[in-house]
């Protein structure tokens, strides 16, 4: 009989896992999972590794990223060991392992620490606005530069090294010898999965969720492009203006539905939300609303982007900037946003591994 390793069990529970030690290894979860294959069999194997405390095997596995959290395994488990939730918790745990700063793990395990981070960003923003004497034209000018430099900085200083660490744990350390050609042949998989997440279509009863995720990803990335590179808040181009409204409305509508689903808990995947899940959907919802309202206030002349006067309507922009700062500096590099990135690279590395065989 396998020995249970309580330390890893305790650790994984901090990332949202339930009583997976109740598993008696029947294999039902693996047989019902439509994404599990002969070459990439899960979730039972991941449960075994977790129960036995095989940290290195878990850290080097790409399988948690191949699961799309449909919840079928959890509803079929005779032991109520919640294998789907374990897979989700392993993704959070892996995110913390990839992160060289160590902050990801701290934020996942302690929501008050996340809130403290949010407060520090708010204080920094107010301090910066005070140094600019609350001149709204200058705050918006620097706010736009903040967007650009935060994207560049977070990607190069945090996310890129973390992806390299993921590659080290999952391919290099396992001595997967893939030819260079495999790396560029598999790039199409990276791009397709990143933008379409089409693998989730293979999860039963999941078509509408796939569609929502798809338009959310497209809406989010294009709003980022419209605000950062097309300078949506300052443009007088009608096409860009309408495009920005549409993109922010899409983000608002889809995330509103996500928040409602989590409140109603009407599907297995929505039944056990962690603080990091709430932060992700609520901040995305606020980003959609505040971007829409800021541009609307500019268009109906409640906010004058060339004025130095900070009127009461301009505080909507300050709120938008606060949400943006907390999103860009905490949720994107250390929170649930990273799952979007790591899952895409998980697919990419899995394809490279397949090509190396
Ligand atoms: S269905 Fe439940 S008991 Fe059976 S292997 Fe999966 S987690 Fe374990
Ligand atoms: S949650 Fe769905 S995709 Fe993930 S392991 Fe379970 S059945 Fe498979």
Descriptive overview:
- The protein has 357 residues and is mainly α.
- The chain is 69% helix and 0% strand.
- The chain has helices at residues 6-14, 28-32, 44-52, 55-59, 63-66, 72-76, 83-98, 103-109, 111-131, 136-172, 180-185, 187-196, 207-228, 238-264, 275-299, 315-334, 337-356.
- Helix 7 packs antiparallel against helix 8 (103-109) and helix 13 packs across helix 14.
- The model has no long low-confidence stretch (mean pLDDT 92).
- The structure holds iron/sulfur cluster (SF4) (2 copies).
- Residues 23-29, 44, 47, 77-79, 81, 83 line the site of one iron/sulfur cluster.
Low-confidence stretches: none
Which outline best applies? elongated
Per DSSP, the total helix count is 17
Sheet-strand content, in percent, reads under 5%
Indicate the structural class. Answer: mainly alpha
H-E order = HHHHHHHHHHHHHHHHH
| Major sheet attributes | none
| Total beta strand runs | 0
In round numbers, the mean pLDDT is 92
Through-space gap between termini: 33 Å
What helical percentage do the residues reach?
55-70%
Write down the Rg. Answer: 22 Å
Ligands bound to this protein structure: iron/sulfur cluster
Short description:
The protein has helices at residues 6-14, 28-32, 44-52, 55-59, 63-66, 72-76, 83-98, 103-109, 111-131, 136-172, 180-185, 187-196, 207-228, 238-264, 275-299, 315-334, 337-356.
Write the layout of secondary structure elements.
Layout: H1 6-14, H2 28-32, H3 44-52, H4 55-59, H5 63-66, H6 72-76, H7 83-98, H8 103-109, H9 111-131, H10 136-172, H11 180-185, H12 187-196, H13 207-228, H14 238-264, H15 275-299, H16 315-334, H17 337-356
Helix pairs in contact: 7-8, 8-9, 9-16, 10-16, 10-17, 12-17, 13-14, 14-15, 15-16
This protein binds iron/sulfur cluster (2 copies).
One iron/sulfur cluster binds next to helix 2 and helix 3.
């Amino acid at each position: 009989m396998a020995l249970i390793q309580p330390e890893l069990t305790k650790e994984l529970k901090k990332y949202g896992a339930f009583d997976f030690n109740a598993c008696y290894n029947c294999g039902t979860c693996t047989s019902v999972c439509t994404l599990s294959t002969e070459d990439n069999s899960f979730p039972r194997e991941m449960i075994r590794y977790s129960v036995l405390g095989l940290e290195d095997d878990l850290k080097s596995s790409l399988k948690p990223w191949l699961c799309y959290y449909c919840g079928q395994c959890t509803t079929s488990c005779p032991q109520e060991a919640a294998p789907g939730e374990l897979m989700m918790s392993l993704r959070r745990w892996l995110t913390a392992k990839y992160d060289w700063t160590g902050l990801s793990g701290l934020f996942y395990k302690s929501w008050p620490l996340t809130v403290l981070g949010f407060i520090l960003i708010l204080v920094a923003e107010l301090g910066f606005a005070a140094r600019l004497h609350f001149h709204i034209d200058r705050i918006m000018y620097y706010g736009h530069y903040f967007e650009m430099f935060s994207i560049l900085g977070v990607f190069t200083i945090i996310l890129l090294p973390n992806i390299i660490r993921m590659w080290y744990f999952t391919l290099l350390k396992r001595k997967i010898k893939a030819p260079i050609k495999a790396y560029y042949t598999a790039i199409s998989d990276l791009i397709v999965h990143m933008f379409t997440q089409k693998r989730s279509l293979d999860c039963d009863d999941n078509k509408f969720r796939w569609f929502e995720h798809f338009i959310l990803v497209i809406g989010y990335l294009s709003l980022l492009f419209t605000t950062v590179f097309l300078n949506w808040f300052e443009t007088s181009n009608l096409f860009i203006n309408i495009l920005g409204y549409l993109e922010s409305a899409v983000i608002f509508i889809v995330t509103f539905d996500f928040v409602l689903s989590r409140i109603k808990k009407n599907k297995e995947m929505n039944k056990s939300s962690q603080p990091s899940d709430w932060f992700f959907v609520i901040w995305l919802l606020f980003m959609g609303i505040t971007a829409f309202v800021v541009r609307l206030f500019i268009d109906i002349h409640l906010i004058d982007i060339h004025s130095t006067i900070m009127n009461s309507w301009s505080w909507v922009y300050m709120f938008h900037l606060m949400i943006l700062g907390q999103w860009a500096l905490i949720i994107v590099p250390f929170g649930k946003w990273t799952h979007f990135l790591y899952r895409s690279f998980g697919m990419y590395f899995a394809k490279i591994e397949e090509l190396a065989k």
